[in-house]
Amino acid sequence: MEHKKILLCVPLVLLLLTACESEKEAPALTVNPYDDIRASTWSGDNKSVYEESDYSRDDIFTFTFNEGTVLKGSEDLQAQMMEEGKDPGLGVRSIHEQGITGAGVHVAIIDQNLLTDHPEFAGKIAAYHDTGCETDENRGSMHGPAVTSILVGETLGVAPGADVYYAAAPSWKCDSQYYAEGLYWIIEENKKLPEGEKIRVVSVSAAPSGPGSPFTENLDMWDEALAAAKDEGILVLDCRSDAETGIIAPAYYDRAHREDPAMCVGGFPSSTYQIPAAQIGAPTSYRTVAEEYSKGSPSYQYTGQGGLSWGIPYAAGVLALGWQVNPDLSNEQIVQLLFDTCSTGTNGSNIVHPTAFIAAVQDTLQP
Q1: How many C-beta atoms surround the C-beta of residue 297 within 10 A?
Q2: Quick check: helix, strand or coil at residue 190?
Q3: Environment class of residue 272 by beta-carbon count within 10 Å: exposed (0-12), middle (13-18) or buried (19+)?
């Protein structure tokens, strides 16, 4: 009888062991949501390979990756995300179909050094000035091509018909003097242009002064340059908390409703917040942008979660579209239209509404 009890217990023990095994946690993933897994382009490596066990396929849309990133088993989804991210969304491409591309509008950018041969903006750089980056002429940056492509990129830009006056500034030196010099250069270039062909807006994806600025030297020089630009009638958008220049905030699309501003959310996918009434949200996440670190090697990167840096050129591009329609609008008038036509996102945030904005600009042409 005792022998039978032992035999009965053996299957029970095996069952319990099997159950325990099945309840063990799966191995931890190497790649987590919103991780940056771009292949290194500075070290000479051109591939960053991840096995299927390293990541969840459901998280791919949150990753930041480039063409050198290989997610084994999901290459098709990677390509889909990269292509989807090129669409500016919010009806921008429908505006382009009307022939409104920012054609004839001059804009400017102050950002890190740029290799100007990327197919997204080759031939669109009207003038280029380096304020002191001191980099190899065959080496690019991450930031420069990204913001330029968002503004005027051929396949992914908001205003692909506009051209750019580009001032390269070494943000890594944390010295606002370089940004001020870049803005003064833009002012001088603007003076050379005839009436009707002036530089309308400067996109600055940085905060060279003001509360929370990461810059440590000559912050007052940026404020002085801004005053000079205003006197010349040039609108500047930057990342400061300022009533005139800091009017743009980060937001992101509902990926299933990319064209609908009312479905957008203020803030970041991992950290949402309601955008203050004095600002307007522009898309900064789920975007594909241009990339070129070495001359002659243009590529792309997908950004699952981007910063405000991506929103500034987006908004500048929308304004450029408006100025193509009615170049007689003043800075104050066109910014007011941007606010008057913005949509309300799902968390109560102001969200830029390009199609409504363009319709309102067109209405200003009516007798």
Answers
A1: 15
A2: helix
A3: middle
Of the listed 309, 343, 349, 353, which one is catalytic? Answer: 309
Q: What is the pLDDT of residues 201-222, one digit of tens each?
A: 999 999 999 999 999 999 999 9
- Provide DSSP, 50-76: E-GGGS-GGGGGG-EEETTEEETT-HH
CA 251, CA 315: separation in Å to the nearest integer?
Answer: 12
Active-site residue, selected from the candidate residues 143, 163, 203, 242: 143
Neighbours of 117 (CB within 10 A): 15
Fold of 92-363: Rossmann fold (3.40.50)
**Selected catalytic residue, list 111, 130, 175, 242:** 111
Predicted TM-score (pTM) of the model is: 0.91
Locate the domains of the chain by residue range: 26-84, 92-363
Task: Based on the residue annotation, tell me whether 143 is a catalytic residue of this protein.
Answer: yes
* Residue 46: per-residue pLDDT: 73
The yes-or-no answer on residue 111 being catalytic is yes
